[in-house]
Amino acid sequence: MDKVMNQPVEATPEQIRDQKLYQSMGLSDHEYQLIKDDVLHRLPNYTEVGLFSGMWSEHCSYKNSKPVLKKFYTKGEHVVKGPGEGAGIIDIGDNQGVVFKAESHNHPSAVEPFQGATTGVGGILRDIFSMGARPIACLDSLRFSTPKTDEDRYFISQIVAGISSYGNCIGVPTVGGDTTFDDAYEHNPLVNVMCVGLMDLDKIEVGAAAGAGNSIVYVGAKTGRDGINGASFASFQFDSEHESQRSAVQVGDPFTEKLVMEACLDVINNHSDSLVGIQDMGAAGLVSSSAEMGSKAGGNGMVLDLDLVPQREADMTPFELMLSESQERMLLCVKAGHEDEVLTVFDDHGVDAVVIGHVTEGDHYQLLQHGNVVADVPVDSLASQAPVYHRESEVPAHLKDSDTKQFVPEIKNPTATLKQMLTQLTIASKESIYQTYDTQVQTNTVVAPGSDAAVVRVRHYDKALAMTTDVNGRYLYLNPRIGGQMAVAEAARNIVASGAVPLGITDCLNFGNPEKPDQFYELDQAVMGMSDACEKFNAPVISGNVSLNNEYDNVPIYPTPMVGMVGLIKGLKHVTTQDFKQAGDLVYVVGRTGNGFNGSQIQKMQTGKISGKLFDFDLDYEAQMQQLVIDAIQNDLVHSAHDISEGGLITAVAESTFGNQLGVDLTSDLPVDRFFSESQSRFIVSIASENQDAFEKLMGENADCLGKVTDDNHLFVSAADGYFDMDVDDAFHLWKGALPCSLK
Amino acid sequence: MALVKVYVNYKKSILNPEAQAIQKALGRLGYDNVNDLKLGKYFEITVADGISRDDLNKEINDICDKMLANYNMENYHYDITETEAAQ
Amino acid sequence: MALVKVYVNYKKSILNPEAQAIQKALGRLGYDNVNDLKLGKYFEITVADGISRDDLNKEINDICDKMLANYNMENYHYDITETEAAQ
Amino acid sequence: MKFAILAFPGSNCEMDLYYAIQDIMNEEVELVSYKKNSLEGFDAVLIPGGFSYGDYLRSGAIARFSPIIPALQEFAKSGRPVLGICNGFQILTEAGLLPGSLQKNVSAKFICQTEPLVVNNAGSLFSSAFKLAQIINLPIAHGDGNYYCDQETLKRLIANDQIIFKYRNNPNGSVANIAGITNKAGNVLGMMPHPERAVEDILGSSDGIGIFQSIINYVKSREVVAHG
Ligand SMILES: Nc1ncnc2c1ncn2[C@@H]1O[C@H](COP(=O)(O)OP(=O)(O)O)[C@@H](O)[C@H]1O
Ligand SMILES: [Mg+2]
Question: Which residues participate directly in catalysis (chain D) (predicted)?
């Protein structure tokens, strides 16, 4: 073989400076100067520029979002670990912690849907088990444009297939998520995945590499040339011209990950005395995991011998080795003298593990290859000393003169409008998606997808965790602050409807370009709104992820901060679902129905767009309604509870009839159009008739009795100026068939 | 009739976990002279007559680009044989 | 070195849903002169030197019978090419 | 009595089975690594679901070369009960312990949902707790659950009453709606549905208990004969 041919020629430090080659790696002139003049006091070589480009990308450094993230409400008496680690931890009693985090894989998925989705799932799982927690559930939050072409349909099916293939194979149930369709996501689909894990609180691990002489151990798959520069790439925006940036994709290998996961949990649980720290290799691969571990420990340096890194391909350069995003890899810091003990565990599990370096005195982060020092930078310069930008903020043009009048739906035939509503893809059943997910493996899934929040019991204890993902980007588009509050409120409503009390949230902040003041405004306001609500519901932010530059040809997506919330149900008997349970039960609406039409599904359905000033929202009132519902559930008064969200009250009623194929006979003095209002803070609740007095006493003025559940499989709802009248079975089939039909 | 045999393989830099697992298993079974194993897809496409060779080439390339191979991760090549009837 | 190309295909009587789905999709895209499409697996196995052709044949048949193909539903065939070095 | 649960690299339902046997059936149970080569001391062997070796190549194709397989074959030959669930079924067919094979579902998609099954033979050691033609609800979760065998084999399966469970609404395209079959001797059952996921009402069904109970009854009745 001709060896010379494979030897890439790297630019010299001078060429990098003179031709500004750092720009193509995503570093700005200012950042390059900072590295040259303030950090190294010399010209960085090619490898070093690569290290900084990876570490100073938005994905790794949060340089644009850090000042915003500081505004999050992160306190709370049960928070064991907040943002900063791989994932956050909340104490749920009995020496147990729930660990959760979400991750976006928008850009990789846009390039290669199947593999983008699989590697997203793989990455978030590693975040969870590297904390010492066993993953017990995944959720996926998807945003697509309405499918129009075969390509669109193929794209969606590949995303779903990717999520299912990874989660199913590794044996973690995918128990929930949310899927909505809007053309705002036409060129920037969102693929966010969340993972929830469970751990013993005395087994917490951290991603730190301390103690000179301790070994750095590389675990898992070999390093190849896949996904190189992915971290800086993930933070680039797409436009038609940048198409060529779409470089090598990574392939997920769930089988290897399963072995790596079991081996790591074995080391953490049974050999913790030998382990100093552990971290997954995610964005910016080896450099990010090692530099972060080094920097976090503080006071030490690190030397890595790249010749020892397991390599899948010949002649890889230091740049490639350090920035490769090959999947299914972990980095450990192991106490000197304990290496063999740990390596044996990995060997038993059939996982490759090798010592590739060690912690040093001083603060040099050094890389060796073929006996030469190929990079030498201060440890902290890569991780904790990345620049931070305070971006400018300006109210977006579309918010400056928005119409304060609420949209008025036009409804001639209420039943027909309801049926049309049920077939809107955002409203329609997502069964055809979640049916391809293993929702039950681990045999703890008490409420599978199809109700408000999923519920996973904690085996051997009388308690369960409820989990959900939510956000309505349309609301945020019309008002990022209030919309941010609503995102958290809706998640909490789903948690409460399932019988749980909110514990905390994780998030994926999917936004546009932070360097544009109007798009930065959306990010900043949304975070403040979310934070208001988190504080109100006592649900601190414990982890999260930022995906910026979701913009195509200068048009950003709707601001879409996905909220992943977890709640605790003390006592399995309180697990509640949205389905009506038996004929004769009384049906109530909890909460006031107002004029909530701007940004609603009916506005979109009838006008093709959303516009105007977002309808009003009162966070205190929301908290009060949620408390009432949780009180009613805990007093054993409730048979079913369903939050009212997109599509309004009538949609929620229809959905509640579907699960057990029951009917309703209801009467209300609201006019027909109000049945589609998306006013927040509302639930549909059904109760046994003998509990009427107790329930009404508890609720006071806040719940209206609408009528009864019936067993005739018919929905009849009489409004002030008309009525809804339909066969539940027919409606059910319309609702269930809409999505598979549009994806065929 | 033409019989088109299309071979689709992963690009060099892309990990093929499946091939890797098979090769490892062969090694465990004692087939240690297997130095390398690649796994790809193999299509046999039978195409009706009445299309020129140039058009056929164009069509096959088209089908491969659009559907049979994923240009992000895969390469393909193909051969065409004329046949009497469908195989 | 020898390069062995192994082709594994479903037996005629076996319906392959994946191949069917692809063929249907091609039809929808207007490629209606595609009469038939089969989808199989394609292995490229590089084998070290120092083994006679007879032994190699035996070994490859062995590997295929045991592992690469499932005799219930699949057929295989292969060709061997001598190569200078690994491809 | 004592159950063995075989665990292969990539198995992912072994703990679910473990809890079902230990916590619900209250019987002794032990995980046995694929690296072992003996099944001595066990009365019944369970092969769990999951994705052994990632289901790469074909489901079950690589696992069947594990060191434990000869011991499993020996165990099966001795007439003691072997139950393969989902991936376990696939491994049993690949290992030649059961006829036929499991192909991709006709939809070409993974399907996870609860399916009604018809008990087609209530006389087997795995189904004696049920009545003939009884409908039971068990979850399925598989991508390759489409059972295939040729006509000859099917005739033999029918003639020997080896088809234990059939789907009522065939979700995956299986020949003759087959959800579970035994070997000719009747002591090796492979089934795609997951009985271990249906052992508590809170999980949606407890119909799976009948299968484990049948095995336990069988083993215990033989113990009585042996010792009595
Ligand atoms: N991508 C998905 N993956 C898994 N479950 C999903 C997905 N999309 C929707 N679901 C499930 O479908 C049900 C309805 O979802 P959604 O309409 O978003 O509910 P809601 O409006 O109450 O938040 C929920 O149980 C949800 O978990
Ligand atoms: Mg809901």
Answer: 86 (nucleophile), 194, 196
